[in-house]
Automatic annotation (TrEMBL), chain A:
Record's keyword terms, sorted: Cell membrane, Membrane, Transmembrane, Transmembrane helix
Highest taxon, organism lineage: Bacteria
Organism, scientific name: Paenibacillus forsythiae
Listed transmembrane segments: 40-58
Subcellular location: Cell membrane
Main location per the UniProt record: membrane
UniProt keyword Ribosomal protein present: no
Name of the protein this chain belongs to: Bacteriorhodopsin
Presence of keyword Cell division: no
Automatic annotation (TrEMBL), chain B:
Lineage: Bacteria, Bacillati, Bacillota, Bacilli, Bacillales
Name the UniProt record assigns to this protein: ABC-2 type transport system permease protein
Transmembrane portions of the chain: 21-42, 73-93, 119-141, 153-175, 182-201, 230-252
This protein's UniProt keywords: Membrane, Transmembrane, Transmembrane helix
UniProt keyword Transmembrane, yes or no: yes
Pfam family, any one: ABC2_membrane_2
Amino acid sequence: MKTMDLSLLWPLFALQGLLAVIGLISLARARSVRGPKWVWAIIILLGNLLGSLAYFTIGRKE
Amino acid sequence: MRNTWIFYRKEMLEMLRGYKLLWIPVVFMILGIMQPISAYYMPEILKMSGDVPPGLLESYTLPGAAEVMAKSLGQYGVIGLLVLALSAMNSFAGEREGGTAELVLARPLTPLAAASAKWLAQLTLLVLSLGLGAAGAGYYITLLIGPLPWSAAVSASALYGLWLMCAVSLTLLFSACLRAPAAAFLSLAAAGGLALLHTLLPRPLRWSPAALPKLSAEALLRQEYTSYAWVFPVLSGIALIVLCFLGASLLFDRNKLPRF
Protein backbone atom coordinates (compact mmCIF):
# COMPACT_ATOMS: atom_id res chain seq x y z
CA MET A 1 0.00 0.00 0.00
CA LYS A 2 1.26 3.41 -0.97
CA THR A 3 1.19 5.96 1.79
CA MET A 4 -0.28 9.33 0.96
CA ASP A 5 2.81 11.39 0.30
CA LEU A 6 2.46 14.95 1.59
CA SER A 7 5.18 16.28 -0.66
CA LEU A 8 2.96 15.29 -3.59
CA LEU A 9 -0.25 16.66 -2.16
CA TRP A 10 0.76 20.04 -0.77
CA PRO A 11 0.48 21.92 -4.10
CA LEU A 12 -3.15 20.81 -4.29
CA PHE A 13 -3.84 22.04 -0.75
CA ALA A 14 -1.91 25.24 -1.46
CA LEU A 15 -4.04 25.95 -4.54
CA GLN A 16 -7.24 25.25 -2.61
CA GLY A 17 -6.05 27.57 0.15
CA LEU A 18 -5.14 30.25 -2.40
CA LEU A 19 -8.61 29.98 -3.93
CA ALA A 20 -10.24 30.35 -0.50
CA VAL A 21 -8.02 33.37 0.30
CA ILE A 22 -8.89 35.06 -3.03
CA GLY A 23 -12.57 34.34 -2.30
CA LEU A 24 -12.39 35.81 1.21
CA ILE A 25 -10.53 38.93 0.03
CA SER A 26 -13.08 39.44 -2.73
CA LEU A 27 -15.90 38.88 -0.25
CA ALA A 28 -14.47 41.35 2.26
CA ARG A 29 -14.01 44.04 -0.37
CA ALA A 30 -17.35 43.54 -2.14
CA ARG A 31 -19.95 46.21 -1.43
CA SER A 32 -22.75 43.63 -1.51
CA VAL A 33 -23.17 39.98 -2.40
CA ARG A 34 -26.18 37.75 -3.00
CA GLY A 35 -27.18 36.78 0.54
CA PRO A 36 -25.47 37.50 3.84
CA LYS A 37 -21.68 37.82 3.80
CA TRP A 38 -21.05 35.60 6.84
CA VAL A 39 -22.84 32.68 5.17
CA TRP A 40 -20.57 32.99 2.13
CA ALA A 41 -17.51 33.17 4.41
CA ILE A 42 -18.53 29.84 5.98
CA ILE A 43 -19.24 28.31 2.56
CA ILE A 44 -15.81 29.40 1.24
CA LEU A 45 -14.00 28.15 4.34
CA LEU A 46 -15.74 24.78 4.62
CA GLY A 47 -16.77 24.10 1.04
CA ASN A 48 -13.34 23.45 -0.49
CA LEU A 49 -13.29 23.80 -4.27
CA LEU A 50 -17.06 23.73 -4.71
CA GLY A 51 -17.66 26.30 -1.97
CA SER A 52 -15.30 28.82 -3.52
CA LEU A 53 -16.68 28.05 -6.98
CA ALA A 54 -20.22 28.65 -5.76
CA TYR A 55 -19.22 31.98 -4.26
CA PHE A 56 -17.43 33.21 -7.38
CA THR A 57 -20.14 32.09 -9.80
CA ILE A 58 -23.33 32.67 -7.79
CA GLY A 59 -22.49 34.88 -4.84
CA ARG A 60 -20.53 37.69 -6.47
CA LYS A 61 -22.32 40.60 -8.04
CA GLU A 62 -20.50 42.18 -10.94
CA MET B 1 -6.13 49.05 -33.72
CA ARG B 2 -4.98 51.39 -30.99
CA ASN B 3 -8.55 51.62 -29.70
CA THR B 4 -8.77 47.85 -29.56
CA TRP B 5 -5.55 47.71 -27.56
CA ILE B 6 -6.78 50.34 -25.09
CA PHE B 7 -10.12 48.58 -24.72
CA TYR B 8 -8.34 45.23 -24.33
CA ARG B 9 -6.27 46.65 -21.46
CA LYS B 10 -9.47 47.94 -19.84
CA GLU B 11 -11.02 44.45 -20.19
CA MET B 12 -7.99 42.80 -18.60
CA LEU B 13 -8.00 45.34 -15.77
CA GLU B 14 -11.67 44.61 -15.20
CA MET B 15 -10.97 40.86 -15.11
CA LEU B 16 -8.21 41.42 -12.57
CA ARG B 17 -10.40 43.66 -10.39
CA GLY B 18 -13.18 41.08 -10.59
CA TYR B 19 -10.58 38.45 -9.49
CA LYS B 20 -11.41 36.38 -12.61
CA LEU B 21 -7.83 36.46 -13.80
CA LEU B 22 -6.88 34.86 -10.48
CA TRP B 23 -9.58 32.37 -9.54
CA ILE B 24 -10.27 30.82 -12.94
CA PRO B 25 -6.64 29.75 -13.59
CA VAL B 26 -6.45 28.40 -10.02
CA VAL B 27 -9.64 26.35 -10.54
CA PHE B 28 -8.29 24.98 -13.83
CA MET B 29 -5.02 24.03 -12.13
CA ILE B 30 -6.84 22.25 -9.29
CA LEU B 31 -9.01 20.33 -11.78
CA GLY B 32 -5.95 19.37 -13.85
CA ILE B 33 -3.86 18.21 -10.90
CA MET B 34 -6.69 16.36 -9.17
CA GLN B 35 -7.13 13.80 -11.98
CA PRO B 36 -3.61 12.23 -11.95
CA ILE B 37 -3.51 12.29 -8.13
CA SER B 38 -6.85 10.53 -7.78
CA ALA B 39 -5.91 7.99 -10.48
CA TYR B 40 -2.65 7.26 -8.64
CA TYR B 41 -4.21 6.94 -5.20
CA MET B 42 -7.46 5.29 -6.35
CA PRO B 43 -6.95 2.05 -4.34
CA GLU B 44 -6.19 4.05 -1.18
CA ILE B 45 -9.20 6.31 -1.76
CA LEU B 46 -11.45 3.27 -2.22
CA LYS B 47 -10.02 1.63 0.89
CA MET B 48 -10.63 4.72 2.98
CA SER B 49 -14.18 5.05 1.74
CA GLY B 50 -15.14 1.79 3.42
CA ASP B 51 -15.98 -1.78 2.48
CA VAL B 52 -14.44 -2.84 -0.79
CA PRO B 53 -15.02 -6.26 -2.37
CA PRO B 54 -11.73 -8.18 -1.97
CA GLY B 55 -10.79 -8.70 -5.62
CA LEU B 56 -11.31 -5.08 -6.60
CA LEU B 57 -8.15 -3.54 -5.19
CA GLU B 58 -5.86 -6.19 -6.65
CA SER B 59 -7.43 -5.87 -10.07
CA TYR B 60 -6.90 -2.11 -10.21
CA THR B 61 -4.34 -1.20 -12.81
CA LEU B 62 -2.93 2.28 -13.09
CA PRO B 63 -4.23 3.87 -16.32
CA GLY B 64 -1.68 5.02 -18.87
CA ALA B 65 -0.24 8.52 -18.97
CA ALA B 66 -2.06 9.50 -22.16
CA GLU B 67 -5.37 8.18 -20.82
CA VAL B 68 -5.11 10.22 -17.61
CA MET B 69 -4.20 13.32 -19.63
CA ALA B 70 -7.30 12.83 -21.78
CA LYS B 71 -9.39 12.52 -18.59
CA SER B 72 -7.84 15.68 -17.14
CA LEU B 73 -8.78 17.61 -20.26
CA GLY B 74 -12.25 16.05 -20.11
CA GLN B 75 -12.70 17.71 -16.70
CA TYR B 76 -12.67 21.07 -18.44
CA GLY B 77 -15.62 20.03 -20.60
CA VAL B 78 -18.06 20.28 -17.70
CA ILE B 79 -16.86 22.43 -14.81
CA GLY B 80 -14.44 24.40 -16.99
CA LEU B 81 -17.14 25.17 -19.53
CA LEU B 82 -19.55 26.24 -16.78
CA VAL B 83 -16.97 28.51 -15.16
CA LEU B 84 -15.97 30.12 -18.47
CA ALA B 85 -19.57 30.69 -19.57
CA LEU B 86 -20.54 32.19 -16.22
CA SER B 87 -17.55 34.51 -16.30
CA ALA B 88 -18.12 35.64 -19.89
CA MET B 89 -21.87 36.20 -19.55
CA ASN B 90 -21.44 39.75 -18.22
CA SER B 91 -19.01 40.78 -20.93
CA PHE B 92 -21.42 42.73 -23.12
CA ALA B 93 -24.47 42.51 -20.86
CA GLY B 94 -22.70 44.17 -17.94
CA GLU B 95 -21.63 47.00 -20.20
CA ARG B 96 -25.24 47.49 -21.30
CA GLU B 97 -26.95 47.11 -17.91
CA GLY B 98 -24.34 49.28 -16.24
CA GLY B 99 -24.97 52.02 -18.78
CA THR B 100 -21.41 52.20 -20.08
CA ALA B 101 -22.24 50.72 -23.50
CA GLU B 102 -23.50 54.04 -24.83
CA LEU B 103 -20.37 55.78 -23.62
CA VAL B 104 -18.15 53.05 -25.02
CA LEU B 105 -19.80 53.20 -28.41
CA ALA B 106 -19.61 56.96 -28.66
CA ARG B 107 -16.86 57.64 -31.12
CA PRO B 108 -14.15 56.72 -31.89
CA LEU B 109 -14.55 53.09 -30.74
CA THR B 110 -16.35 51.00 -33.34
CA PRO B 111 -18.44 48.00 -32.22
CA LEU B 112 -16.02 45.79 -34.13
CA ALA B 113 -13.06 47.11 -32.14
CA ALA B 114 -14.96 46.66 -28.85
CA ALA B 115 -15.91 43.10 -29.78
CA SER B 116 -12.37 42.17 -30.82
CA ALA B 117 -11.02 43.50 -27.51
CA LYS B 118 -13.58 41.40 -25.63
CA TRP B 119 -12.74 38.30 -27.66
CA LEU B 120 -9.00 38.79 -27.14
CA ALA B 121 -9.53 39.24 -23.40
CA GLN B 122 -11.56 36.01 -23.14
CA LEU B 123 -8.98 34.21 -25.27
CA THR B 124 -6.19 35.41 -22.97
CA LEU B 125 -8.09 34.11 -19.94
CA LEU B 126 -8.76 30.77 -21.64
CA VAL B 127 -5.18 30.25 -22.84
CA LEU B 128 -3.80 31.19 -19.42
CA SER B 129 -6.19 28.90 -17.53
CA LEU B 130 -6.01 25.94 -19.87
CA GLY B 131 -2.23 26.30 -20.28
CA LEU B 132 -1.60 26.31 -16.54
CA GLY B 133 -4.11 23.53 -15.92
CA ALA B 134 -2.76 21.28 -18.65
CA ALA B 135 0.83 21.98 -17.59
CA GLY B 136 -0.03 21.07 -14.00
CA ALA B 137 -1.76 17.88 -15.13
CA GLY B 138 1.19 16.99 -17.43
CA TYR B 139 3.71 17.59 -14.64
CA TYR B 140 1.86 15.34 -12.20
CA ILE B 141 1.32 12.67 -14.84
CA THR B 142 5.03 12.44 -15.66
CA LEU B 143 5.80 12.43 -11.93
CA LEU B 144 3.28 9.78 -10.85
CA ILE B 145 2.34 7.73 -13.84
CA GLY B 146 4.92 7.82 -16.58
CA PRO B 147 6.30 9.68 -19.56
CA LEU B 148 3.71 11.67 -21.46
CA PRO B 149 3.94 12.25 -25.22
CA TRP B 150 4.28 16.03 -25.01
CA SER B 151 3.51 16.93 -28.60
CA ALA B 152 0.30 14.88 -28.44
CA ALA B 153 -0.59 16.50 -25.11
CA VAL B 154 -0.09 19.99 -26.56
CA SER B 155 -2.18 19.32 -29.66
CA ALA B 156 -4.88 17.66 -27.54
CA SER B 157 -4.99 20.72 -25.27
CA ALA B 158 -5.19 23.02 -28.29
CA LEU B 159 -8.10 21.04 -29.76
CA TYR B 160 -9.90 21.13 -26.43
CA GLY B 161 -9.18 24.84 -26.09
CA LEU B 162 -10.76 25.51 -29.46
CA TRP B 163 -13.96 23.79 -28.34
CA LEU B 164 -14.01 25.83 -25.12
CA MET B 165 -13.45 29.00 -27.15
CA CYS B 166 -16.46 28.07 -29.32
CA ALA B 167 -18.60 27.87 -26.18
CA VAL B 168 -17.20 31.17 -24.86
CA SER B 169 -17.93 32.79 -28.23
CA LEU B 170 -21.54 31.63 -28.02
CA THR B 171 -21.77 33.15 -24.53
CA LEU B 172 -20.38 36.44 -25.84
CA LEU B 173 -22.82 36.42 -28.76
CA PHE B 174 -25.82 35.91 -26.48
CA SER B 175 -24.39 38.40 -24.01
CA ALA B 176 -24.54 41.07 -26.73
CA CYS B 177 -28.32 40.81 -26.99
CA LEU B 178 -29.66 39.18 -23.81
CA ARG B 179 -29.33 39.63 -20.06
CA ALA B 180 -26.34 37.93 -18.47
CA PRO B 181 -28.02 34.86 -16.87
CA ALA B 182 -30.00 34.16 -20.04
CA ALA B 183 -26.80 34.44 -22.09
CA ALA B 184 -24.99 31.90 -19.90
CA PHE B 185 -27.94 29.52 -19.90
CA LEU B 186 -28.53 29.71 -23.65
CA SER B 187 -24.88 29.29 -24.56
CA LEU B 188 -24.50 26.29 -22.26
CA ALA B 189 -27.68 24.83 -23.76
CA ALA B 190 -26.35 25.48 -27.27
CA ALA B 191 -22.96 23.89 -26.51
CA GLY B 192 -24.72 20.96 -24.82
CA GLY B 193 -27.05 20.64 -27.81
CA LEU B 194 -24.13 20.59 -30.25
CA ALA B 195 -22.39 17.93 -28.17
CA LEU B 196 -25.59 15.85 -27.91
CA LEU B 197 -26.23 16.05 -31.66
CA HIS B 198 -22.68 14.95 -32.30
CA THR B 199 -23.00 11.92 -30.01
CA LEU B 200 -26.31 10.98 -31.66
CA LEU B 201 -25.09 11.39 -35.23
CA PRO B 202 -21.30 11.01 -35.10
CA ARG B 203 -20.84 10.09 -38.76
CA PRO B 204 -22.88 12.79 -40.55
CA LEU B 205 -21.72 15.43 -38.05
CA ARG B 206 -18.03 14.55 -37.96
CA TRP B 207 -17.21 18.07 -39.22
CA SER B 208 -19.01 19.67 -36.26
CA PRO B 209 -16.95 21.61 -33.69
CA ALA B 210 -18.51 19.32 -31.05
CA ALA B 211 -16.21 16.60 -32.42
CA LEU B 212 -13.21 18.50 -31.00
CA PRO B 213 -13.25 17.00 -27.46
CA LYS B 214 -13.34 13.49 -28.93
CA LEU B 215 -10.55 14.32 -31.37
CA SER B 216 -8.54 15.75 -28.50
CA ALA B 217 -8.80 12.45 -26.61
CA GLU B 218 -7.95 10.52 -29.76
CA ALA B 219 -4.86 12.65 -30.37
CA LEU B 220 -3.61 11.42 -27.00
CA LEU B 221 -4.77 7.83 -27.07
CA ARG B 222 -3.97 6.89 -30.65
CA GLN B 223 -1.36 9.53 -31.41
CA GLU B 224 -2.09 9.40 -35.07
CA TYR B 225 -1.30 12.40 -37.17
CA THR B 226 -1.87 10.75 -40.52
CA SER B 227 -5.64 11.04 -40.52
CA TYR B 228 -6.95 14.51 -41.25
CA ALA B 229 -10.15 14.05 -39.25
CA TRP B 230 -9.38 17.23 -37.31
CA VAL B 231 -9.35 19.57 -40.34
CA PHE B 232 -13.10 20.10 -40.71
CA PRO B 233 -13.95 20.35 -36.98
CA VAL B 234 -11.16 22.90 -36.58
CA LEU B 235 -12.35 24.91 -39.57
CA SER B 236 -16.00 24.78 -38.52
CA GLY B 237 -14.99 25.74 -34.97
CA ILE B 238 -13.11 28.79 -36.26
CA ALA B 239 -16.06 29.63 -38.52
CA LEU B 240 -18.42 29.44 -35.52
CA ILE B 241 -16.16 31.78 -33.53
CA VAL B 242 -15.97 34.29 -36.42
CA LEU B 243 -19.75 34.21 -36.92
CA CYS B 244 -20.35 34.79 -33.21
CA PHE B 245 -17.84 37.64 -33.29
CA LEU B 246 -19.50 39.37 -36.25
CA GLY B 247 -22.97 38.75 -34.84
CA ALA B 248 -22.01 40.12 -31.42
CA SER B 249 -20.52 43.33 -32.81
CA LEU B 250 -23.68 43.90 -34.84
CA LEU B 251 -26.02 43.12 -31.94
CA PHE B 252 -24.00 45.12 -29.43
CA ASP B 253 -24.38 48.20 -31.62
CA ARG B 254 -28.14 47.69 -31.80
CA ASN B 255 -28.65 46.84 -28.12
CA LYS B 256 -26.90 49.64 -26.32
CA LEU B 257 -29.66 50.40 -23.88
CA PRO B 258 -30.40 48.35 -20.76
CA ARG B 259 -33.42 46.08 -20.80
CA PHE B 260 -36.16 46.44 -18.28
